[in-house]
Amino acid sequence: QKAAQNLKPIVPIKFHISSRTDTGVHALCNSAHLDIQRAPGKPAFNEKQLIYSLNYHLKPEPIRILNAYRVTSSFHARFSALSRTYIYRLLMGCSHYSEIPVFEKDLCWAPAGGYLNVPAMQDAAQFLLGTHDFSTFRSLNSETPFQSPVRTILQADIRPSSGFLSQHYHHRGLEFWELKFRSRSFLYRQVRRMVGALVAVGQGKLTPHHIKELLEIKDSRAFPSNAMAPPSGLFLKSVEY
Questions:
Q1: Which residues are in the Pseudouridine synthase I TruA alpha/beta domain (predicted)?
Q2: β-strand 83-92 against 175-183: which pairing, if any?
């Protein structure tokens, strides 16, 4: 917003972002919309000018504008979204958090106990697909009374992944896995709770069928204590329109 104000608009600029994330969560890509009104007689910015100018003023910040598009006045970055895709990065093979590669610090989660039972996690993830009341899988906040707990999970995949520079420490037996979730929208901390429950399945603390039972209980207090995944492994991957 500060960078956009440097473009000398005649009306103060307000960014409308597609979605907010918890502290410690990352975004590979997010989207926002803004209206820029220039002084009379000045032409509208084109997409390339806008990207270059905003990035010039964002130099000291850990954020970059990747693309810009002209949209209709009815477009809204949050409410026009068809779906949002999150990925969660897990690291297996660490007996202690000190073994996490230094380049991966705060960019993944290495659950205690080393390796996880991935096939059991994949079976459990199938129960999350489709339309359900996800009350058990949300944390309570001020918006809870005004939000429907019903959401539709369009995708819930668990696949092997590569780590940053992982080819150079392959001999250490570390494995990266990605959990990918896609839905039109998610509840507060829903993805982190789903990941935590699936990891508990992978550790043998829950069975795949427990995921179905947790959904049916429809009570956030029924969620296993200390099972929520930390924010460090979560990334907003993309917002689809």
A1: 124-241
A2: antiparallel
| Active-site residue list | 22
Q: Strands, E, within the chain: which ranges?
A: 16-17, 26-27, 32-33, 83-92, 130-133, 150-161, 175-183, 234-240
Domains of the chain: 1-58 (no CATH), 83-240 (3.30.70.660)
Task: Give ∠ CA 28-149-153 in degrees, rounded to 5.
Answer: 50
In this structure, are residues 121 and 143 in contact, taking their beta carbons and an 8 Å threshold?
no
Ligand-binding site membership of 86 (annotated): yes
pLDDT band at 144 (very low <50, low <70, confident <90, very high): confident
Residue pair 74/35 in contact by the 8 Å Cβ criterion: no
pTM: 0.91
pLDDT digits (tens, 9 = 90+) for 74-131: 999 999 999 999 999 999 988 888 889 999 999 999 998 879 999 999 999 999 999 9
- β-pair partners for 88: 179, 234
